[in-house]
Every structure is written in C-alpha cells, then in structure tokens.
Amino acid sequence: MQKLWAGRAGKELDQIADDFNSSIATDSRMFRQDIQGSLAHAAMLAAQGILSQADADAIAAGLGQIAEDLESGALKIDPAAEDIHMFIEQVLTQRIGDVGKRLHTARSRNDQVAVDLRMYLKSEVGHIQGLIRDLLGAIVHQAEKHVDTILPGYTHLQRAQPIRFAHHLLAYAMMFVRDLSRLDDALRRMSESPLGACALAGTTYPTDRAMTAAALGFDRPCRNSMDAVSDRDFCVEILSALSLIMMHLSRFSEEIILWSSWEFGFVELDDAYTTGSSIMPQKKNSDMAELVRGKTGRVYGHLMGTLTMLKGLPLAYNKDMQEDKDAIFDALDTVTMCLQVFTPMLATMRVKKERMYRAAQEGFINATDLADYLTRKGMPFRSAYQLVGSLVAECIRTGQVLETLPLSRYQSLSPLFEADLYEAIDLKTCVECRTSEGGTGKDSVLSQIQYIRTLCPDAAPADEEGE
Which of the residues are catalytic? Predict the structure, then answer.
C-alpha cells in the first residue's frame, strides 16, 4: 500500500524501518472505534457544508460495509499497513474512489488515534468494572456463608485477634469498591473528545467539535488542541488504577496461597483452579493464585514504562506515544484474564471452618479481651496489659491457654477477676463484643454485606456449606 503521507520523501522507507514504524499489529483492535469516529467526522463535515451530503452518504455506506466485512472475516487486516487508520482509509478509497480521500479533511492521525484510543479504553474499562462487580458478588456470596466462621486475624503475620471470616473477606471487597471508584474518576476525566484538534493547531475549516464529541459519547471537546493530541494522562490514570487492582488481587492471592497450604489448612481450592507436580504425586498447587500474584509486576511495569516514555516529551505529538497502546492494551488484557480466573476460583473455594476455629483457639488472641475485661472493672489499661502479658508468658511455660488457667490463679493476681472472665474470653464473645462501626461484630459485618450487595445486586444468595 502507498503511504498516505507519500509526496515529501524522495524514496521508499527502508523495510526494517517500515516494520519498526508500523503499529498495525497493536492498534488493529481499535477498528470499530476508528470506523465509529470516521462516521461521526463525515456526518459533521456534511452538516457544516465542508463535504456534500452525497459524499458523506457514500463514505458512511463504505465504512459500514468495511465494518461488516471486518466483523465477519470477509476482509482481513493487511499486516503490511502502517496502522489501522491508514488501512481503513485506503480500503475505503479502493471501494468508493476519490470520495474516500475526502474523509481526512479537517482531521489528522494525531487527533484520530487519540479519539480512537479514548473510545476503546472507555469500552474496556467498563468491561473491567463489570468483572470487578462479578468478583464482589463472589466475595459477598462467600461472606454471607461465613458470618459465623471464626479465624485468627493477623498483624505481622502473627495471630492477633479473633475475627469473622466474612469480615476478612469484606476487607478485600472494600478495596475493589475503591477500584471501581478510581476507574469512574479516570473515565470522567477522559470524557473529552480530541477529534478536530487535527495535528496540533486546529483547522481553518468551520468544524463543529461539539457535534462529534456528542455523537461519540464524550461530554465535551478537549479545550486545547495541543493538549488534545499530546495528552496521555488518561492512559497513566487507567494504568495506575489497573496496577492497584492487581495489587489487591495479589494480596488476596497471597492469602489464599497461605490458607491453602498444609501449615494453615484454612481453605481448599477446587481442582479446576490448581495443578499438580510432575514428580510429587501428593501436590496440589495454587498455580492460578500464584500467576495472578506474578502478573502484578507485569502491569506495574507498563505503568512505569508509560510514565518514563512521557516524561521528556515536548509538545505536541511525538512518535514515542505510539508505545502507549502496547502497554495499556497488555495491561487491560492481563487484568481481564486475572479477574476472569480469580472470581470462579474464589467462588468455588471450600472453607475449613473447624481448622480456622482451632487456629483461633491456639494463639492467645483473646488476650486483649482479657485486658479489656480488667479495664472495664477499673484497672488502667496499661496495668491490665502488663498483667495479662505475664499470664500469657506463664501459660506458654506451663503448656496452658487462658481458657484453662484456673480461676484461683487469676484471683491470686487480682481480685477483679471473677468467674465471668471465661465468658469474656470465649472466642464467640470476643468477636461479638466488637460492636464498633466497621468492626467484626455481627451487626457490623451484616451491614458491610448489605453495602456490597447494593453494588452487585445480581450476586447469587448464599447457600449452606458443610465442613
């Protein structure tokens, strides 16, 4: 194909340089958006009298047929084309003649690719938001089944205090809710259309940028033509949001990997989301969770690569910016794949309630509740803290736990201890007494579940699950 920019150059581009310059392998996925943008542009040109209505109609018909042929496979994208924009324009011109050459009036590839990319990302971000809501549905489904399942809560990966498993799961739900919000913010800021900014300075034609912006679903045109073609903040914002999604998935994956180990034994993943060993027949590896954890670095790399690519660019458009699409497209694909495998993995995960409860009984994680018991009876908390700490040390030396230490021993240390202390340090009491908003008390957890359900009302209701 002849280059659309041919005329200035004295000879053809070197083949290696041509391949290096080409972006068709990456940007061909934006063919729908390119055609949609061209249809809106042609309609505006006709409305403004820049193009005859007959020419606009011929262009629209030609673009419509190209879209159908690309969707059906009747038309194959030429890998020798420089980019998707040139490919579609050249096919259009081949099919409808010189009228096709009028389409690029009052437009540059600089604003064309910018509007294509924004439209494509709007669609893909919406898809990812749907996948996050699916994940929230799986989380709330598991949480509803495990409101009364108790396990140790950890700090520093050391057993700290007893919590409900639902409470632990809902902490991740809140992370993904923030991810939805961040994506909404990014979508709002990128809802400005660069179409009509042309190469950098606008155009001498009497175009109506508000018309094309509205036709393509944008809130308004970009206010500065140089910024319109050189802005890739929206790519950075989306990559940042995707990196945070991956960070949350990675943290969740790490816990699932730990929980499914023999040392914890809190959960068992469905065989559909694990693999075995080629040499050790007993192995059941949580490879899907490990891959999610590993792919997080890949998305981080795209964020840092894009920031680095942009940091030294003078205004306005530079060819460096062609690198944005490889990065953002691969990040979108990676996050999509991770969400698609993580959600059913979580939904089918079997929780070992008794193992969790036994672990909660063993780590003196009711020690704070015993200190609170003394504090409620008038002892200063710091004094109570020290007394209970000495009791924990004694239990460790003697092989006991706080629940088995005799009342006489307690009362030898303080007359504030009474028989009701055993109820106060019972694990079920410990979780139920944490009634502060956002805590692990039952009413608080049920309130959190209801909040998440408002965001994913289509999530399946919880069913009963045995050990």
Answer: 156, 277
